[in-house]
Amino acid sequence: MGHNGDGERTFAPQTEVVRLGRDPFRFDGFVNTPVVRGSTVLSPTYDDLVHHRGRYSYGRRGNPTTEALEGALQALEGSDGVVLTPSGLSACSLGLLSVLGAGDHLLMVDTVYKPTRQVCDTVLKRLGVSTTYYDPLVGAGIAGLIGPNTRAIFMESPGSQSFEMQDVPAICEVARARGVTTLIDNTWATPLYFKPHAFGVDVSIQAGTKYISGHADLNLGTVSAVGTAWRQVQATHGTLGITISPDDAALGARGLRTMAVRLERHQASALEIARWLQARPEVSRVLHPALPTDPGHAIWSRDFSGASGLFSFILKDVPEKAVAVFFDSLALFGMGYSWGGYESLAIPFDCADYRTATVWDVEGPAVRLHIGLEDVDDLKADIDQAFAKMAAAAG
User: Do the beta carbons of residue 330 and residue 384 sit within 8 Å?
Assistant: First the structure.
């Protein structure tokens, strides 16, 4: 615990996720903000109605349940405001639509989440926005890619599936000098382990589906912004009529309370398994920025205070039939396209078809793991037996 510049007490993030966004005595002492379901909000008098004196105006514009989660996230992010969306992808789309218009140019990191790339190549293209994909390792060299109509730079660090680390402060310094808005997908680290706004990012996006939820039962997106970007995000969010159900907001707030302790476990277990995989004869290399051997480790250790449970590894070259046996033999790892929940997951991937500024050329099949909250020795044993069956299938 410390004090801020105003003399108020400040707390560690682990404490903040427990206390932020709650006002029990506003609701007769109940610890959690109630789930308020409603569309119509009544005004007591004509004067209150026409002068919009009420705290709330219409269900789509917010209620105590959504406001509680937004307020907690705003404090964690250190921003001017947060809005909620129905999914992580919709949060990315909202961020982009808020700061771009016809004739604008976007610089998008080549290692971005594939569905976000699809938004650029379809919706934004149709609206007259051009996109250039750039190498995630470009750093301050991004200055050479900025044109007269470049309005935004989108980052994701580490990169989706392949885990390249970006020099976020270097990119933001260039962008700020040129009047370009910066956005980042910060789902992997969350604001507990990386605070984008403190490094100069204008718009910080999360798929709350992942670690905020933590239980694989919620789709949620969050968009945090500062300055002019916040006014743009807030206006676009309201104009488009984007809203989430109060039940989903309550699930998000519930998940937030345990996010710090879950992330500590995800991080520790994932690092233990990543180190174990490095020594396995079946594995060529592990892609995890918190490992000292990773190319992005210096940036990670400089800017981040922790890591999550998601990373990848490259197998030594084996036939596809043997890779299929590996996946089908896993008992504790589900095969599914998500992560951030309590459960461990595994998927194969190949980035080659959706990279244009970089080349994905690896020595063997690629595997992405999300390490859940299971016992780490049980997870190792599960991978070990799957490796054995893979080897037998490879002949």
Answer: no
From 262, 265, 214, select the one nearest 376 (Cα to Cα): 265
113 counts as catalytic? yes
Active site residue 193: no
185, 294, 303, 382: the active-site residue: 185
Which residues are paired to 369 by β-bridges?
A: 311, 346
List pLDDT tens digits, range 152-201: 999 999 999 999 999 999 999 999 999 999 999 999 999 999 999 999 99
- For residue 286, which amino acid is it? V
Mean pLDDT, rounded, of the chain: 95
Q: What is the pTM of this model?
A: 0.94
Q: What residues contact residue 89 under an 8 Å CB cut-off, 6+ apart?
A: 113, 115, 116, 119, 207, 221
Tell me the chain's radius of gyration from C-alpha atoms.
Answer: 22
Instruction: Please tell me the distance from the alpha carbon of residue 191 to that of residue 205, in angstroms, as a whole number.
Output: 10
Q: Which one from 210, 257, 285, 355 is the annotated catalytic residue?
A: 210
Please indicate whether residue 195 is annotated as part of the active site: no
Task: Choose, from 19, 26, 60, 321, the residue flagged as catalytic.
Answer: 60
Residue 32 has pLDDT above 90, yes or no: no
Task: Kindly list the distances between the CA atom of residue 314 and the CA atoms of 30, 123, 283, 284, 311, in Å, as whole numbers in the listed order.
Answer: 49, 33, 6, 6, 11
CA distance 289 to 165: 7
Whether 326 contacts 386, CB under 8 Å:
yes
Give the pLDDT confidence score for residue 108 in this predicted structure.
98
CA dist 280 and 13 (Å) reads 36
* Pairing status of strand 130-134 against strand 181-185: unpaired
33 and 23 Cβ atoms separated by less than 8 Å: yes
Catalytic residue chosen out of the listed positions 113, 133, 134, 354: 113
Residue 7 CB neighbours (<10 A):
6
Give residue for tokens 């007769």.
Answer: 28
CA distance 383 to 330: 7
- Specify whether 46 is catalytic: no
On whether the CB atoms of residues 293 and 163 are closer than 8 A, the answer is: no
Quote the DSSP letter at residue 257. Answer: H
